[in-house]
């Protein structure tokens, strides 16, 4: 699970008071899936088994990874897209 972007989730007081636009903003910010992963040397391979979006289910991705302090950098192969994850406590 991750929140796309650099800020927190959009806020609203409750589901029954939220507008459709409020709900869509939260839905679009969330990236959710679960499944399996393997790590070999500096390569992470993931496979989604359950996901927010059906097209992701069964898909595999490979990432070269590096850890620098509280930051995990994933570079997707072969596209080169970069995801930076920061540990928050």
Can you offer a commentary on this structure?
The chain has one helix at 20-29; strands spanning 2-3, 30-31, 33-40, 43-51, 60-68, 71-77, 82-86. The chain has 89 residues and is mostly beta strands. The strands form 2 sheets. The chain has a 5-stranded antiparallel β-sheet, with no helix packed on it. The chain has a two-stranded antiparallel sheet with strand order 1-2. It is globular, with a radius of gyration of 15 Å. The protein starts with a strand and ends with a strand. The mean pLDDT is 92.
Total number of strands:
7
End-to-end CA span: 16 Å
Structural class call reads: mainly beta
- Strand/helix succession: EHEEEEEE
**Low-confidence sequence ranges:** none
**How large a portion of the residues is in β-strands, by DSSP E?**
over 45%
The 3D shape can be described as globular
* Mean pLDDT score: 92
The count of helical stretches stands at 1
Q: Tell me roughly what share of residues is in helical segments.
A: 10-25%
Instruction: List the strand order in the largest sheet.
Output: 3-4-5-6-7
- Biggest sheet overview: 5 strands, antiparallel
Radius of gyration: 15 Å
């Amino acid at each position: 699970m991750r929140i796309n972007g650099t800020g927190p989730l959009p806020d609203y007081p409750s589901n029954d008071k939220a507008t459709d636009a409020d709900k869509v903003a939260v839905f679009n910010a969330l990236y959710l899936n679960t499944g399996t992963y393997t790590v070999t040397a500096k390569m992470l391979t993931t496979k989604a088994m359950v996901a927010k979006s059906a097209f992701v289910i069964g898909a595999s991705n490979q990432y070269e990874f590096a850890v620098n302090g509280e930051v995990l950098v994933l570079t997707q192969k072969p596209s080169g897209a970069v995801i930076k994850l920061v540990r928050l406590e």
